[in-house]
Amino acid sequence: MLQNKSKILILLIIHLLFSVSSLFAQKFTVGVQFTGISIHPRGAAHSHLMPLKFDREGIFVLNPGIRINFEYFFHRDILSIKFAQGLYGDCTLSFAGFTHIGFRGRILNRGNHTISGGIGPTFFFRRNWYRFDGYRGNDLFFRGSPEDRWQRRFIWFGGEFTYHFRLTNSSELAVSLIPFYPAIIQLGARKIICSPY
Fold first, then answer.
1. Containing domain of residue 163, as a range?
2. Residue 62 within any structural domain of the chain
3. Can you give the pTM of this predicted structure?
């Protein structure tokens, strides 16, 4: 009985979220993306720890999870500020995530196709990999010692490029590229609550 009430409550919240139309003065979007694939162009140093790798070297690794985006356009459909929260299984399927807020600008808009780019501070975290046999602690990105529960990294200028394909006036498909090492590709959809267009 409690599970049914929880499901109904979640569906009600989602419905309310997507049915708000005048609250944000035609300048607000909500997006859900499925965290996707990490790309290690030279291969991953610890590919033997990665159960969802597509190849032996760990060049492509699946990272299952979800990311929620909230974007407020303050100058037509050209400039915005975006908040993103991602939670996913990293390359070792350890719990990981990031929190990001940053400015976005439209780079290209042709018909149903839009490309935007953005930059802003980002905080990354993951369960500590030192708990794995064979982890040598030689990745250059995350900080943390073997005694820490979490490894983390804060960067002032995290960014991404996003391609949106408009399906309808209120929905789009999205593909994001986070050009870091490893590069990350995420797939998803965006619901336009109040269109800035």
1. 28-194
2. yes
3. 0.77
